[in-house]
Amino acid sequence: MSGQDFEQISGKNVVSQDGMDVGDVTSLTVDPESWKVLSLVVKVDRDALERLKLRRPLLGSQKILIPVAEVSGVGKSIVLRSKIEELTFYGGELTEKAEAAKAEKAEKAEKAEKAAKAEEAATAAEAATAEEAEKTEKAAKATTAATAPTADKPDEPEAKVIISEPADPS
To answer: What are the residues facing 161 on neighbouring strands?
Structure first.
């Protein structure tokens, strides 16, 4: 989206990768420090609300923020990188069903994270136990080696003392 003026972007139709109309650009969000455009503010077409799992208001429509990273190209329309069902966006009020699915997904992710942490803790405890057993085994071997006779030294014969009587000079 580089090199475009707001006037050239404002009011442009936004189309998903699969050719579905998403809506029209109404404004942009800008990082106040870097002055870079962060996202497009898009007024969603009423027909696209359902595909985006957004509530359909009684009158009008909803606005969503589409990150600039989702933009594939700018011509007569702004073409997005994703299909409409896979589109990353922020804002908008989800339908009750979508809200429930989102909550269920978050709950499953939390359970999976807890399970992963528990498994990690069990693995760490198992490793510590194995390390402790190895240390105990080494200490036992060292104690046995210190108290047992060494096999590499052959037994030395006992010295025999022979006492002989002096020979009779006669």
So the answer is: none
The model's pLDDT over 124-163, given as tens digits with 9 standing for 90+, comes to 777 778 778 787 777 777 776 666 555 555 555 665 666 6
Give the integer Cα–Cα distance in Å for 8 and 107.
43
Alpha-carbon distance of 39 to 73, in angstroms, equals 14
Angle at 141 between CA 139 and CA 143, to 5 degrees: 70
What angle is formed at CA 141 by the lines to CA 139 and CA 124, rounded to 5 degrees? 50
Instruction: Give the three-class secondary structure for 164.
Output: coil
The pLDDT value given to residue 152? 54
The helix or strand, by DSSP H or E, that contains position 93, with its residue range, turns out to be: none
Q: Can you give the pLDDT at residue 63? A: 92
Distance of alpha carbon 10 from alpha carbon 42, whole angstroms: 10
pTM: 0.55
Strand segments (E) across 33-113: 37-44, 63-67, 71-74, 77-80
